[in-house]
Amino acid sequence: MPPSLDALEVSLLNTSGKVKLDARFRTLFTLKSLASVSDENCVRVISIIGKGFEDDSALLKHELAYVLGQIRDVRALKCLEDVLADEKEHTMVRHEAAEAMGAISSPASLPLLQRYLEADPEVSIRETCHLAINKINFDSSEQGKAERARQEQLEKAHGDAISAASNAAAPIDPAPATVHVPASARAEGNVYSLENVAHFRTSLLDNSLPLFERYRAMFALRNTVQQGSKEAQELAMQALADSLVDPSALFRHEVCFVFGELCHPASVPAMSKVLDDDAEHEMVRHEAAEALGGVLEEATEGGEIAQAAVVKTLTRWAEDTSAPRVVRESCIVALDEIAYNNDPTQFQPMDAVELEM
Ligand SMILES: [Fe+2]
Ligand SMILES: [Fe+2]
């Protein structure tokens, strides 16, 4: 039997003071999956998550905002607007709130996003508002609707029941992946192939393009790693790694987030380098730590990647009291997740775990 929402609330909000951060993250994702069970659940889950913003962990709160976006229900907007408008809140949390508004994609969010696009002192907030505004406008445009319909058709044509299910669970990206490459021989089909990697790479690295367009190329490269041939995968991974020198911290953090989604052993050197760089922005190092935590579980097939070295890197920063709190906590959560996933007594997937309190 799944745990009750009451019990999940107690766990997420850590009312006992004894729930570890990684267990609270698992509770959060259990709540996310329960939100889709019924409308009543959805309302309750949004309210429980909303109470979590009283916490003092920016890492937890940014994840709360992320999940509110992924639930994709307009009833979460009020809470997200309050978080964005709270200028004393940690930038990473406010960023995630603005991004979540983009994920929900209601035109009603546009005036507030526009205000912070124009006036926020933090560049990563302004950049996130740019992305969210473009996504909302794109989603409601004729082009956006046509692209979505074509994507769905392609997925139906190629997909089986399993990929349909995983598509339904797929995260909402801050910018939809490019689906149309005009000069491509496959322009009307699946564009995530070797011949288009160079096109995506050029857009990704082109500083003069709007950030939204570069993000679209970034997610197209992610899709290429997931769907392309081995050669296409390698080149797409290389393009993503090469883009980590970009001047925008927000852009770099998203590249690390994409590496976290891909769980690809080839990303370990790049992600270790980012985490080890104490001059790097904390938001970027946080995503690199999470990406490193994810690679280990996946790196099984001949994957003699230096597991011990990754654990050592994560442990080093988890224990370094001079490192920013979000970096330390990300490393602690990554290490706890590695231990949890390597524990043979844990058979359940992340979003169906027993409640830990
Ligand atoms: Fe983010
Ligand atoms: Fe994050």
UniProtKB/TrEMBL annotation:
Its localization reads: Cytoplasm; Nucleus
Task: Tell me where on the tree of life, at the top rank, the source sits.
Answer: Eukaryota
UniProt entry tagged with the keyword Repeat:
yes
What this protein is reported to do is described as: Catalyzes the hydroxylation of the N(6)-(4-aminobutyl)-L-lysine intermediate to form hypusine, an essential post-translational modification only found in mature eIF-5A factor.
- For this UniProt record, give its keywords in alphabetical order, as a comma-separated list: Cytoplasm, Hypusine biosynthesis, Iron, Metal-binding, Monooxygenase, Nucleus, Oxidoreductase, Repeat
- List, alphabetically, the Pfam families matched: HEAT_2
The record's comment on cofactor binding reads: Binds 2 Fe(2+) ions per subunit.
For this record, the Gene Ontology CC terms, alphabetical, are:
cytoplasm; nucleus
Recorded catalytic activity of this chain's protein? [eIF5A protein]-deoxyhypusine + AH2 + O2 = [eIF5A protein]-hypusine + A + H2O
Q: What is its EC number?
A: 1.14.99.29
Q: Write down the species.
A: Malassezia vespertilionis
Q: Which residues bind Fe cation 1?
A: H62, E63, H95, E96
State the Gene Ontology terms under molecular function.
deoxyhypusine monooxygenase activity; metal ion binding
Entry similarity comment: Belongs to the deoxyhypusine hydroxylase family.
Pathway the protein acts in: Protein modification; eIF5A hypusination
- InterPro entries per record: ARM-like, ARM-type_fold, Deoxyhypusine_hydroxylase, PBS_lyase_HEAT
Give the binding site residues for Fe cation 2: H253, E254, H286, E287
Name the coenzymes or cofactors required: Fe(2+)
Q: What is this protein called?
A: Deoxyhypusine hydroxylase
Alphabetized HAMAP family for the sequence:
Deoxyhypusine_hydroxylase (MF_03101)
| Top class in the EC scheme | oxidoreductase
